[in-house]
Structures are given as structure tokens and as C-alpha cells.
Amino acid sequence: MAIQILNSKKQAKKVDFMQFLSGVPARDYVFQHTPYEEQVREAAALLKSADAVIIGAGAGLSTAAGLNYGGKRFTDNFGKFIEKYGSAAMTDMYSAGFYPFPSEEAKWGYWSKHTYLNRIEPEALPLYLMIYDLVNEKPHFVLTTNVDHQFWKAGFADGDIFATQGDYGEIQCARGCHDKVYDAEEMFLEMNRAQKDCEIPSDMVPRCPVCGGNMAMHLRCDQYFVEDEHWNEAAGRYAAFLQEHQKDKVVLLELGVGFNTPTIIRFPFEKLVRENDKWSLVRLNLREAVVPESFHKRAVGINEDICRSMEDIRKEAEKDVVW
Ligand SMILES: [Zn+2]
Description:
With 323 residues, the protein is an alpha/beta fold. 41% of the residues lie in helices and 15% in strands. Bound molecules: zinc ion.
């Protein structure tokens, strides 16, 4: 689910990686004992010598970059919503998205505000820009569950990104009656300006141009998620990139991917390392940077704030030394 992936710290606590330690497929997960500085050197060395880099990015990356879904950022911006719907249901922007809004006017009142704050208003965040600088000169591809459009804003080309779970800036038929998504940035700006008491005016409620039914956010939160032509093309480009670089030295740079939906990036990345001798994994994660012990030197798992580890890796990679 798209929204599930945008987990707050609170959400992350609900999924404990310890549950995976004794089971398949992560039975040999370990926190590496290598000192932090050495891990940074190893990660930088892998990235420098890579023929190509595949970035896998999850919620933890955007949280580290500044798009925090809870705490003061939530209460400062959603005070009226908390007052109206109650603080039990409105605990952060993750859970608020699941609130059973009583009407379409109320639903779009919430989502226009949420989208403005997380997709429209923020410019490219420094952490995303740093990642772009790091991989820009090598062949690269981005696989992401994030729906906030930061990779595009940071300069990555549309042809190099596969955002599997949708985008806050798009809407679709709520029943997925046709395979098309609609750019809704302008619509959200207008809704956000026009809303009163957490609701938009009735004449602004969007309707499906085909079936006349309700519209929904283009986020993978139920079986009606639309995989349109652009989505399928991006999936195809990702598959082609994997194929093209199969014999190369590839680094899978995994950023902030937890155990909420590990089957999209985390487990497939581990499978790719298992299947390709020359591929390696650099996993940056605040709390869940466990890596398969069997990967030995082909995995670096840095359990640290991603802003800090990424900055240190960048500095190390810029040093003019021969490893
Ligand atoms: Zn429809």
C-alpha cells in the first residue's frame, strides 16, 4: 500500500524486524560489527567502482529528508482536522489518510492539504539532491515506493524512475474503471485555497469522466490501483536496466526501506545480490540496516540517520584516493 509505505516512526515500531530473524527469507540477518567509519569507506568504495547504481528508496528516505508525517509538522498543519475528527484517529499524516471521511467534500479537503504539504510545496530536498550528485555520472535507475515526487524534483530523468505505488499529484477513478491517471496538481491547489472547515465546496468534487463515479488518489491502497501506460513503461525500463547490467558491477543502494512492504524493494534486492556475483548491496537505514551475513563483503548495512551516512559517504567518495 502506498500510504502504508510512507510510515511514520510510530508505524515503524509496529513492524519489528526481529520477527524475521528466525524465518524465511531473512534468516541470516545481522547488524554488522564493522565500525561506522569503515562501513562508510566500504560503501564509498563500492559506489566509486560500480559500473551502474540502482537506488531503492522507501519511506525512511523521505522522513530523513524532512517530510516527517508526525509530531509538530502534523499538529501545526492539521490542527483543524484534529479538532474536527478527534486526536485518536488523527495521530499523524499516515493514519489520517485512512480516516473514513464522511463525504467526498471532506475526503478531498484532507487530501488537498496533505498533497500540498508533501508533494506540491516542498522543493527538491537537500538529501535527494545529494543522492542525485552521487550517482548522476554513472548509469543509474530508481525504484521507489515513495509518492512525493522528490526524485523528479532532484533532477532524475523520468525515464530513470519507477515509482511503483503512485504519486500524490495524480488521481484516478476510485473503482479503476479505466487505465488512466490524471494530473491533479492544479486541482489540489484550487481545492486547498477554497476549503472551509476542512471541506472543499461540492462543485469542486471530481468525478470519473468515464463512469461518473468517485475519484481517488493515485496511491496503491486497494485493488483498484491503476497501472497506466506510464507505469507499465517504467516497469519495462526497470526490467531492461536489470537485464542490460547483469554482467556489470552493480551497486544496489537501498535507502530507508523498512519491513512495511519488503517485497517490493528489500527482498528483491537481496535476491538480486544472491543471483549476481558482481552485485552488492549498500543498505542505509535508521534502525533496520540488518543485512544477510552470507553476503560478506558484498553488503554494507549502515544503521544510522541517512542524512549523516549519505553525507559521509559522499565526502569519502570525493576523496582522491585509490582503494
Ligand atoms: Zn470510473
